[in-house]
Amino acid sequence: MAEKLNIKEFLDRDEKKDLLRLLTAGSVDDGKSTLIGRLLFDSKKLYEDQLDALERDTKRYGNAGDNIDYALLLDGLKAEREQGITIDVAYRYFSTNNRKFIIADTPGHEQYTRNMITGGSTANLAIILVDARTGVITQTRRHTYLVSLLGIQHLVLAVNKMDLVDYSQQVFDKIVSDYRDFATPLGIPDIHCIPLSALKGDNVVEHSPYMKWYKGQPLLEFLETVKIESDKNFTDFRYPVQYVLRPNLDFRGFSSTVASGIVRKGDEVIALPSMKKSRIKSIVTYDGELDMAFPPQAITLTLEDEIDVSRGEMLVHPDNLPFIDRNFEAMLVWMDETKMDPEQQFFIKHTTNLTRVKIDQIRYKVNVNTLEQSMTDTLELNEIGRVVFTSNKPLFFDPYRKNKNTGAFILIDPITNNTCAVGMIIDKVNARDLSTNITEEDRRYMRDGYSIVSPESRARLYEQQGHIYAISGEAATEFGYTLERRLFDIGKTVVVLNSREITDIEKVADTLCKQGLIVICIGYSANGKYITNCKAETNKVSSSVEDVLKKL
Amino acid sequence: MSEYKLTHLKELEAESIHIIREVVAEFENPVMLYSIGKDSSVMVRLAEKAFYPGKVPFPLMHIDSKWKFKEMIEFRDKYAKEYDWDLIVESNMKAFQEGVGPFTHGSKVHTDLMKTQALLNALDKYKFDAAFGGARRDEEKSRAKERIYSFRDKFHQWDPKNQRPELWNLYNARVHKGESIRVFPLSNWTELDIWQYIRMENIPIVPLYFAKERPIVNIDGNLILVDDERMPQEYRDKMEMKKVRFRTLGCYPLTGAVESEADTIEKIVEEMMTTTKSERTTRVIDFDQDASMEQKKREGYF
Predict the structure, then answer these.
(1) What ipTM was predicted for this assembly?
(2) Which CATH architecture has domain A454-550?
(3) For B251, which of A17, A444, B160, B217 is 20 to 30 Å away at the CA?
(4) Is A515 helix (H, G, I), strand (E, B) or coil?
(5) pLDDT digits (tens, 9 = 90+) for A521-541
(6) In which pathway does it act (chain B) (predicted)?
(7) CATH node for A7-230
(8) Do A18 and B8 touch (CB under 8 A)?
(9) Which of B1, B12, B16, B21 to mutate to test the interface with A (most CBs of A within 10 A)?
């Protein structure tokens, strides 16, 4: 234990430690702050003057009787201290002989799902506390669901206050079994359950003498040894260009952080969306050129060829592309006090791209306590739903569960500039497969005999305006069908009406035209804003058709 | 797999570089606040790394309270020249000419006028929409909750209850005219990380960090350096030579030294590991009132 190192050896060793980011969640009285205080205290990171201040503060606000109130170490802000609750995410730092740790400490109150999501986005591991006396409660379920939603790979269920249930193995086993029933279907890959007492220090750093039946590691030992390297995606190379570096005419580099995968000097890469190919000429850093780079290294790539790549575009390997699409669906967590206005457009920040999105549909919202799904027209603060989006330009993405960095996004309200929601992409969506949300207002419209598809959306979908070509003359039939073929070939949506077959051609043509179609009427002529009359003469059909097309 | 693993310092470095590049890509007029201290020195090195082989594409700005240690100013001018920094120096000249200083006006008035006001005036003068600062979350309790992108309203004020959610590495850079963002790329670094990095990278720092015999007076338990003749005579009469160093650097009358033998980075770290005081206790201003740092931050101080 007490291995003697001189300071140089200590520093050389310290320099090589890795970093583990962890999230802690629990409800109000689970002893979470006490546990964190204990981790900080027992890892000898608390300086004496912080302890002095603590003793002062405990006298004024403390809730722990004569014991030191570890929780007061953590509650930074004045107003919160007076209320006795932590209300936001606070970050804590400590280190052991093997690792450095960043703790995101988040509160357990119902209304603060938002903060847990904020604290957990970068976490490698989550600790969820339960009180041994109460076992798995609604909040435990909610926290576990959020951990699975964020894709955190490692979870510790810390069954705290074991001292208050006589260190009973039966109590612990029952809680673990209840918990696994609930958590297993959520698919969190690695779940560890540890019985402990944060207040007394049992199974926090040292094995508890009172729980010999527990054969697993104490909490700190587990945190020090859990393997996190393989959690990253080293398979799919994704490089969202962050900044184009042009210090002089001889150097053009693309600076960014490797989002996933591995890139090597000489690799063939393709730029999205231009699909131009080139090879990696060099991987430049201040500390010298590299042969390869991996996430989350911040590097600068230079290419063999002068291809144009800007911020927001992406370099990938040509045989491994992300989705390139404007339509996608995602789990969305609403973070704003103001509820979602589904008609509004939002800014979306995804990798290094900033563009606009609209909401096509909310498929359902999830009750975070029961995981039940229900229909909804909107999402309110702390609500989570499965939402379908269309972005203004194609995004380059992967499903979040495969690739956090290319599957995550935030929504920004264009008026207030607040970060109003955050999302995790599930998949791309075929826009035409969407079942439509019908509102009450829509139903009134329909009952009154109106379509709820607007002329504008028809025009957008068909990429055309409704129009009638009234064709008369000796070669009307040939002209009409030639025009149909030519319009069809250039992607227009077109129908032909023949006056010999349809009696009320004027009315039918008018109806179809209003619904955005191009209507060709053979053997008919009329006047109107959307009508072009054509006289079809034998031997002049082709040139007349081309004249019509030119005027499109 | 271990060949694809970064040490904690390399991971923190990568995170900071990402943040610095993101700000330059998304803001029109960023600035880096340079305090001459060790954290600033690390931050400047990270900025140099972010844009290598190019130059750092924004200015550094030092808010000179006119009461900084002389050695700090010498250090600043030497390295600004050597590294070819685009350096802006701003002071509250009006208050300075009126003779505001910590000995005559006390630390609260001095800090407000010569630091906070000077900073706010300078930010308004140049219309910076983003300002990098070297603050770390482990320094002080109220900083533990601050975002990396910290939104400030038109009056440069921080509202701890109304912070934007901040997830993954997706930072929200959108502000209305007149509003701004303070950016803290060193948020996740600890004091030990800073020292380790300075050692690993050979980053120059002000010699005041290293122990040396210096002329000192004890003022209310703080060991204050006699840096110039503005130190009142009554104090100077009590001057004695002590081997001291400074754990943080600021205005000399407000920054206490610690007695120390540590004259190398290794010795400083050794002392830090075994020491009983955390670093901000040598700052006189933090003890003005309870929750005083939070108060200052709401008002616009870093």
Answers:
(1) 0.89
(2) 3-Layer(aba) Sandwich (3.40)
(3) B160
(4) coil
(5) 998 888 888 888 888 888 888
(6) Sulfur metabolism; hydrogen sulfide biosynthesis; sulfite from sulfate: step 1/3
(7) 3.40.50.300
(8) yes
(9) B21
